[in-house]
Specification:
about 65% helix, 2 domains, about 525 residues, two-stranded antiparallel sheet
Amino acid sequence: MATVDIANPPQEYPDIVGARPTNPLAANFKPFIPASVQLPELTLFHLLTGTVLGIIFGASSLYLVLKVGLTVSASIPVAVISITIFRIFSKFGFRDANVLQNNIVQTAGSAGESIAFGLGVTMPAIMILGFDLEITRVMLVAVLGGLLGILMMIPLRRALIVAEHGILKYPEGTACAEVLKAAASKESLEVADKTHTTANAEIVNQEAAGGGKVIFSGFGIGLLYQAAMGVFKMWKDTPEKIFGAPFKAGSIAAEISPALLGVGYIIGPRIASIMCGGGVLAYLVLIPAIKFFGEGLTTVLPPETGGKLISQMSPNDIRGAYVLYIGAGAVAAGGIISLFRSIRTIWHGLRGGLADLLGHHGPREHAPRIDRDLSMRVVIGGCLLIIAIIMAVPQLNLRGNLLGAFLIVLFGFIFVTVTSRLTGEIGSSSNPISGMTVATLLLTCLVFLIVGWTGPHYFVTALSIGGIVCIAASNGGTTSQDLKTGFLVGSTPKFQQIAILCGALASAIALGPILLKLNDASTFTCR
């Protein structure tokens, strides 16, 4: 973990505002586009392109999460599409997008996928409980959760993205940066060459071109593989072997996915082995043990709510009824431990933001371009406005409920911090957002039980809190990946934050009606 050496004056490293981190990778890092270079970045056409792509990918991700319960990060596909679109436009006399403009496109376009996941795992629960899936409720949860997650991530950028550079990998963000750099325009390469230590600029261009060929070749192979497996069903996507006695309910399975293969390569063998170890513990230890000790029960064992006996359950049924809650508790405990271990770095980032809020700018008054965030006035003002809306609107069933608003802020901050760190370690595709949502619901229901709020109308209140926190955590992780990409390529954080706020708002508004349309078409069985 990176630490901060307060004794070192910040002037030694002008690209890092505040105390210099003792992590040498963070202290000596130089972005692809240096801070001294001014390129067009937050332009209207590129922002609109990213927003439209975000809505499209958000709709497809919403369908995917309702069908199979997972999504894959949209940043890299959006970046590839953006590069392709503007490269084609350049053939007809239009200006090609530079690397920072393409980054704005992928930043705005990535928000839809994370919001879709949060909606898909929480809103159907309202219907299961017998309540109407009102469009205003869905849109409010999506908008409020999406914006809250982004705003809460902004003051954490310096602590998690800058100070932990080289420690937190942010796999999708790093891969997306490599895609953008490999396909950078001539304009971008010209200014980037001047900042590299390579004496021969031609070598840099050849390396970028070679990297681009590898990346796009991999993209093509992955697309063909996924089409053969998913569309034409040429082989089983998740081969599985379930054991019988004496190891009843034990199972081995593997999801043979190009996306997960790429994520595993980026996160490295250590984190991949830890994740594999969790799967071994669940499917070869916990599930067989629950089956062995519970098979003789003649009554349903809580927290199973479907009425099934353990003797009637498959391995996946046992996972959903029991192991999921064990995992949720582990995620919550690990997240809280991680939060306390990171408190020093987090406080360092928040302190810088508070100094900006109070006008004590110090070295931040003339901060370099690559270290300019949205003002803390915007962050705190936006959070207070969101809290006021949460308490005021009747669709969320909070109706002036200060405790509910406090729980949203508390759990939102905790799980945005946790998911941002976990995203940096294992990637967005493997981030256990659903476990954090279950933990949020369990803790919220525990608080409600303590204060005596046990009526049926509090079900929707608890689910609204869980939905907003889930989307906030999901979007916080996506925001951290985007900011990591921007950190690597040399984008202006402020422009990225504006782009993802716009993309999240547009996607949240659009995904509400899309969710209802998918329900009307019987896409998911909660009717």
